[in-house]
Amino acid sequence: MHFKDIAGSFIIILNLLIFFYFAVLNTVYLVLFSAAFLEAKKYATRRKIVDLYEVFRSPLTPSVSLLIPAYDEEAGVLEAVKSTLMLRYPHFEVIVINDGSTDRTLELLKERYKLRRITKVVQLRVPCNTIRGVYISTEHENLVVVDKENGGKSDALNAGINASRHDLICSIDADSILEPDALLKVARPFIERPLDTVAVGGVIRIVNGCEVVAGNVTKVELPHSYWANVQIVEYLRAFLGGRMGWSALRSLLIISGAFGIFDRSVVIEVGGYRRDTVGEDMDLVVRMHRHLREQKRKYRMVFVPDPVCWTEAPQKYGELGRQRDRWQRGLIESLTGNLRMLLNPRYGVIGLFAMPYFFFFEMLGPVIELLGYAAVVLAVVLGYLNYQFFFLFLALAVLYGVIVSLIAVYLEGIAFKRYPKLGSLLKMGLYCFIENLGYRQLNSWWRSKAYFTYFTRKRKWGKSVRIGYKQVSSYPPPTA
Amino acid sequence: MTGAGLFTASIAMSVTYAVVGLFALVILMFVVLIVLRLVGERRERILEGRKEEILPVVYELLTDDSTAEEVVAGLRSGIPAHYRRALEQVLLENARVLKGRELEILTVVFEQLGYVDEDIATVQKSRNLEKAESAFHLGTMRTAYAVPYLVSILSSSSPEVKFSALNALSKIGTPEAIEAVMDYLAVDNELETMRVAEVILERKQAFSPYLEKWLERGEPDVSRLELLIDLVGVMKDTSAVEVLLKYLSDPNPTVRAKSARALGSVGDMRSCDRLSAALFDTDTAARAEAASALGKLQCTDAIPLLKAGLVDPAFEVKMNCALALSRMGEEGRAALEDGLSATEKQERGVVAEVIEVQNVREGVKAG
What we know:
By secondary structure, chain A is an alpha/beta fold. Helices cover 52% and strands 15% of the residues of chain A.
């Protein structure tokens, strides 16, 4: 048998496998997005009969400790703290954890909030590096700053858990802005079902292009940057489509570290955030599922599509690539660390549906996609490519992807309406096409590369260049 | 053409159809999105415009000492019939904030303009989410004759429908409505009842005697019992003290802890002695809650016991004893400062933290 024949057979088998893979993946997407669509409709009606003011004034509304880990966040930390202190919620404390910053993060906080160092007995319920000092604000009764030795984001969050006083903890990134009612909305499932709710996630939206005044997003618009726009569509798909769908199917496996609220006692039971991973948010949720399922406890984790946390998306090629690399490594670490759950009926729908999806499609997906591209190139070289099939299949794949993204834009445009201009919706619709040509392939490349960095790179804070809120009244355009 | 060739051609044809179909679907989705958005925006704009237009008329009629009949007549003559939906929304928005006489007038207005009958019909027939919305409206309208219809949907499988019905019954607040809520609470096994709690707390004076009687009778379901104790606590009704004291010696430690917390919330000094005794409870949470409650009540007689509690093996108890002492004026502060010379490191740390935080807070209040 000649090499060409072997390669030909290989290409044909690979094509069939990829076609099968594509069909299964898109069927899962269809199920997920249909569930998300129904859930969004239900949620939109529920909003009419839920009075947030009742939550606000109810003495039974649980208190929350907001944890803001900060490492070299001098550009954004003051604005983030300001926006959290302005939250509309009956009882909460804000704990900023300065993770051994090398810039003026701590000094800025000390000056702005007139911090005073106090003696504090911090019980080490979950592991964390040495706490150098605890400060409280002489201006705001509910602001605490924990200064600790550098240990990474998970370590900082663990320190925050140790220093927290309340039954619920809410993690927020130091470069994020919460909407004033976001905490009330995200805590609502805990109020409705206090006995079995253990975690709730909110929506992360991209602030680039929006107008920010005094820690509040006052005008929602799309940015000019290509990179930011493709990410906006991607976030809509991931949150309004994916997470809402997973939540409806009782299989939510990710609650974003940028905005999630957890039952503190369960987080402590599972040992807090894992300190040797860059995907601490997903890892925590997966371990909580595992622990609660193993203990046969009744629990629920919920995604709420309305409370919004705004965050700045990277606008440069290199930063975006590093972010995706980090996210993929986090995914690999979370899944490989809990492999026993995969296809294991003991873990119910999580083991039989959510874990296999994330393992075969999210974790291995980018590599399989790149293999597909490689097979096309090989087929061209060897003269095996049926151009008619190739272009038809390409069109099918792109159109299917566009439809999935459009459903998310639909949900945004009809149910949530954060972008008031019709032009913004049309532009997002356009980006549903554009993202398939270039960005999607790049994303697969970055995520595939993560396998190499997974074995070679050490865990550290994933940092992006922040413009900082204070200097700008309107988000980007990028400076370079 | 060979068999394989035909097979390939048929697959190619199917994929081509799929591509064309998907492309058409994409275009259709775009068009529908734009149309829905435009139509939705236009509807909203018209509705808001109408609401703005009729608001002064409604406001004037409701504030000029008119009777309900006069208000109805004024609305019928002053507002075009096709503004009906806008008028309903304006009236509902007003009903949420008005009280007393104005609210009573509005209740009659809703009935006479036919909105109540419309919502009752929706509650009986329509889909769950529409039922929930209409039930919510009936509560806002405070329509007493809607009670049987609202009770009938309490058996719905939809949590939204149940919650809206409970909310409405609580707002209506007639004895039969309150009893219906209590009956529901007694049999509901899902305990999605923080929502019910919110409903109850809306009208705590009406519910309080029922809850106390229930606690006196006893409740075998522990989750429900804990919720009842929480509710009675936050209602701050001093008549509940005796029954809460009974639960302070319940065999279940969580019930004891909840009772201690509730007694702290109620704020009656009669519970000081029993709460002091609870500082010797075998359960950590019960001791910690008892200390906290003693602090809230400022039971100064308990200062020696709270001081002794600073060496409790459990951190939570130590902390709550220190916090309680910090709330008890000069005497408590002196007892707390004694703790600074304690031999145990954790005790010294807890005392120092509470004193330093108190100093800062007092600085905040002063400045």
